[in-house]
Each structure stands twice: as structure tokens, then as C-alpha cells.
Amino acid sequence: MRSLTTTTTSAAATAANARKKKEAKVSDEDFQLPIVCDADTLRSLIRRKKSVRVVDVRKAEDYQREHIPTAVSLPLARVLENDQPERIVAFLEELGISDSTPVVVYDDTFGALAARVAWTFQYVGHDNTALLEMTFKQWKEIGLETEKQQRTFPRARHSLSIKKDISVDASYVEAAAKSKLSTLLVDSRERLNYLTEHIPGARNIPYTMVGSEDSILRKAEELKRLIENRGITNDAEIITYCGSVGTLSGLTYYALKLAGFKNVKLYPKSFKEWKALGKPKEEFKDATYWDLSAE
């Protein structure tokens, strides 16, 4: 009887070890990141080596000064100057990012720059991309590791698979604004800018409201409450835009996704293009104190 018990225990231990090895393999090769990656998870992935690519989107000189360990540099300016899908895929390959590589993006600008780059990666087909929950400044303030070594990795191969369902252009926005059916426009600029002029029918969720003191985005339930208080429901198609290149609205895009809203799109050229094209605008005249409040 004792022998049978020992054999059974040994078999169970062997099975458990096999599961652990399998889980470790999945974690390293196929780990699916959440929308926002916490610092502990990122540090664990970094320690495993090669299981994650950390992308620093600050200016090159800031990266060179110091950065999160193993991070590679891809300043937002390079992305905006080379925003053709084929060029973005070339950047991914240059940074050693294959289709299966988990990617975590960070900045030092309350998450807006990181959001724009993360969205761009996902637009060309790299779904497994997350925002780091904090800025680099916050990372340092809590005493986490940094390095000065400029990292490079072997070139990888990455496919191109454009996700047309997360991006819209001016003509699409104009048609949506005219239809006023199940599509809602969300202006991510500060309240006064929104009141001065905005795309007709747009609702205002200022980017300043989606974050908290210790995280680039609030908790999911807080965001859901904030968004629903704007009269936005989960059955709507939601288009976010901001003032120029989709950074602030990129952050709002991820706030909506984190809150559980499924059908969210970004208008990356945003209000700057809208005005340049001479599209219709709406404004609030004689705004009161309460109009100026985003609450």
C-alpha cells in the first residue's frame, strides 16, 4: 500500500513538473499581455530574457541617458514620419520583434505617446502589445532598475496584417457625424479646446480624466463609470480624436478598451486634418462655468 502511494505521488509530481514546464514555455513564447502591463509582470518577463520586447518611445537622447533594462528605442517622431504600414513593420523587424513577441511600450508623457505607438503596432497586426502602467519617471521614483546600455537584437521577420476596424479617416468620420445613428465621436482634448470648436456631435472626455496619480489609466470599473456618465453605451461604435496626431485620443482609445468597450476606432489625423480639409465645426458660445467643467 505504501509502495502504491509512493508511486502515485511520484506520478503526480512528474505530471506537475510537466505542467510547469509547459506553462513556462507558453509564458515565454505565447504570453498574452493585458491592455495595461503592470511593473511586476514586466520585470518578470524581462528576467526570463527574450520573452518580451520593451519599447521606449521617448526622444533618443532620453533613452541614451537611461532606460528600462533591455528596452529598445523607437521615438514617436520616427513612427509619425514613417507611418506607412510597410515602414512600421520594418521598424518591428529592426527591433527584433516577430509576430509572436510580446511588446510593452512606455514613455514619460502620461502614456499618450506610448498609446499612439502601441495602437500603430496593433494597426499593422501586432496584437500582443501593451502599455506599461506607469511612465519612466514613475518607474524610477519607486526605485526600479534602469540601465544605459543601448540595446539591439537580431532582426526578426514580421507579417503585415492591417486591422482596418480600428482606424478611420476624415470621410468616414464625416459620414458618421452626419448619420447620428449608432456612432459616437469622442473628443479627447481639454475642455476649453473642445468648447472652442470640435467635430459636430462629438462628446468630450478630456485625456486628463482617464489617468490617475500612479497609473496612466484608471481602473477599468472607474473608466466604465466615467464613460457611461457621458451617455456612451457598449453597443455604440466609438471614434476617438484629439488635436493633431492621435496621441491624446490614443490614450482615450485604450481607456475605452480597458473599460470593456469593444467597437472603438481611432481617427489618427484628428482635428488638425479635419480643419485643414475645411470640414464643418461646432462650438459652444457663451459657455458657462458648468460648461467648462468636465465632470
By helix and strand content, what is the structural category?
A: alpha/beta
Helical fraction equals 40-55%
- The CATH superfamily label of the largest domain reads Rhodanese-like domain
Report the total helices: 13
In angstroms, what is the radius of gyration? Answer: 22 Å
Binned strand content = 5-15%
Q: Could you say how many structural domains there are in total?
A: 2
How can the largest sheet be summarized?
A: 5 strands, parallel
> Tally of extended strands?
9
Q: What's the CATH class label of the largest domain? A: Alpha Beta
Break the fold down into its secondary structure elements and pairings.
Blueprint: H1 2-30, E1 36-37, H2 39-48, E2 53-56, H3 60-65, E3 72-73, H4 76-81, H5 85-94, E4 103-106, H6 112-123, E5 129-132, H7 136-141, H8 170-179, E6 183-187, H9 191-196, E7 203-204, H10 220-228, E8 237-241, H11 247-258, E9 264-266, H12 270-276, H13 289-292
Parallel strand pairs: 1-5, 2-3, 2-4, 4-5, 6-7, 6-8, 8-9
Helix pairs in contact: 6-11
